Amino acid sequence: MIDKLDADLIALLTEEPRLGVFEASRRLGVARGTVQARLDRLQRSGVVRDFAPTIDTDRLGYPVTAFVTAEIAQGDRDVTVVEHLRAIPEVLEVHTITGAGDLMIRAVARSNTDLQRVIDRIVSDPGIMRTSTVIALATKIDHRAVPLVQAAVAPDDDSENDDTQNDAQNDAKNEEERG
To answer: Is the overall model pTM greater than 0.85, yes or no?
Structure first.
C-alpha cells in the first residue's frame, strides 16, 4: 500500500525522472533520508520497477501503431509463441486476453507497408492460428500511471500522517546522531 507522500514522490519523478533525491526532498518538504527510504521501499516492493527513459516511437521512426489480436493453438504452444513474439523488435507489448482471441499485441511499424512485414513476422509462428489487426489513428491518452497511483492512496489513510511523522522523527534522530 502506498500513501500520499509515496504518490507525490512517484508523480514528481514521473514528471522529472532525472531529478535527484535532494531536490525531490526539497520540493516535497521532507528530509532527503525520507525520500531515499521511500524510493528504496517502492523499488524493493516492485511498485517502481525502473527509471528507464520513455521512448517516443514516432520520433524513433515508427509512427504506425497497431493492435493485433492473435488466436493461438491450445496447449503448450503459448510459451513458444511468446518467445517468438519477444524476438520481434517492433512488438512492444503482449497481453493474454479474454474474448475473441488469446493475445493482444501492441506493435509499431515505419509505415503501413512496413506493418505488413511486421504482421508477416508475427504470424510466421505455427502456433498462431489467426490474427486481426487494427491501426491506431491517433493517441488520445498516452501510457500513464500517475492518476492510478494517486487513486491507490486510501482517502481515509490515517497512517499517512503517522508515517510522515515517524519519518520526520527518524530523520531528526539521525541528524542528531550525526552531530
So the answer is: no
**Distance, CA of 18 to CA of 51 (rounded, Å):** 9
Q: How far apart are CA 56 and CA 126, in angstroms?
A: 32
Q: Is 101 left (phi over 0), alpha (psi -120 to 50) or beta?
A: left
The model's pLDDT over 133-169, given as tens digits with 9 standing for 90+, comes to 999 999 999 989 999 999 999 676 554 455 555 555 5
The gap from C-alpha 14 to its chain's centroid, in whole angstroms, comes to 11
Which positions ≥6 away from 28 have C-beta within 8 Å? Answer: 5, 8, 9, 12, 35
pLDDT, tens digit, 9 for 90 and up, residues 53-81? 889 999 999 999 999 999 999 876 688 99
The span from the CA of 21 to the CA of 166, in Å, is 19
DSSP letters for 24-76: HHHHHTS-HHHHHHHHHHHHHTTSS---PPPP-HHHHT--EEEEEEEEE-SST
CA distances from 30 to 38, 78, 96, 146, 168 (A): 11, 48, 41, 20, 7
CA distances from 39 to 15, 30, 48, 88, 145 (A): 15, 13, 8, 33, 16
Residue 115's nearest CA partner among 93, 91, 139 is 91
